[in-house]
Design brief:
155 residues, mainly alpha, 0% strand, globular
Length: 155
């Protein structure tokens, strides 16, 4: 593997995953972190699954089919391609075809869903930048006993 330049990349990836796992030790509120993490994944799944109902070809599919396709696309984006291009499309299209969706409809579904998911990130980023730029800066307290969330109560 090292001869093909894969060994170094693979060992760095394993090291990065290990560092990420060990960083969980530094989380101050692990239960809240876990709830937020699960909440994000549930919302991500719902975002994916609810799009099934926007297309006639996929509107009949069960939540189980949605979960299988979601797991497939989640695993597919691990493949080191820019934004999961190709691997995401192949995985979801394959699952949809296995569930009886016509190939061209499955390809259309995947292309549209992936495009919207990809565009959503920069659009929300731009919206957030604009919203935060019009927000008043927080005032700081001159009271030395006042910290963090107490600031608003003492002003």
């Amino acid at each position: 593997l090292r001869r093909f330049g894969v060994g170094g990349t693979l060992s760095k990836m394993i090291s990065d995953v290990k560092d990420g796992m060990f960083s969980l030790r530094d989380v101050r509120n692990l239960p809240l972190f876990t709830v937020y993490t699960l909440g994000i994944w549930v919302c991500y799944f719902l975002h994916f699954y609810l799009t099934f109902f926007a297309f006639t070809a996929t509107s009949h599919l069960s939540i189980t089919a949605g979960l299988v396709a979601f797991i497939a696309c989640t695993l597919a984006v691990v493949v080191p391609t820019p934004n999961g291009m190709g691997s995401f499309h192949f995985a979801v299209k394959t699952i949809l075809v296995l569930y009886g969706v016509e190939t061209t409809m499955a390809e259309s579904f995947v292309l549209i869903v992936h495009s919207f998911q990809t565009l959503l990130i920069p659009l929300l980023g731009i919206y957030s930048m604009l919203a935060l730029s019009h927000r008043k800066p927080a005032t700081t307290s001159t009271n030395p006993q006042c910290t963090g969330s107490d600031t608003a109560a003492h002003n």
